[in-house]
Amino acid sequence: MADLKKIAVTQVRSRIGRPGKHRRTLRALGFTKHQQTRIHDDTPAIRGMIYQVRHLVEVQDVEE
Fold first, then answer.
1. Which of 12, 29, 39, 64 matches a 20 to 30 Å C-alpha distance to 18?
2. What residue ranges define each of the domains in the chain, with the CATH number in brackets?
3. What does the alpha-carbon distance between residue 35 and residue 48 come to, in Å, rounded to a whole number?
């Protein structure tokens, strides 16, 4: 299997006052604190989660 691209996802807005579905999605992406950055493989499942909370996070490509 080919190596997957990596993306860096940073939470830039608070989860306070957001619907439970958004808070659970942030937790599934690995965020426990505000302004935290997590590295993920660029897969359709991760992209779908990012799309759901796109107003709370920023995404950048990671050079390996």
1. 39
2. 6-62 (3.30.1390.20)
3. 20
Q: Which residue has the tokens 């993306």?
A: 7
* pLDDT at 4 (0 to 100): 85
Q: What is the pLDDT along the chain (64 residues), one digit of tens a residue?
A: 567 899 999 999 999 999 999 999 999 999 999 999 999 999 999 999 999 999 999 999 998 7
Categorise residue 35: left if φ over 0, alpha if ψ from -120 to 50, beta otherwise: left
* Distance between CA atoms of residues 31 and 14, nearest Å: 11
Look at residues 9, 12, 7, 6 and name the one whose alpha carbon lies nearest to residue 37. 9
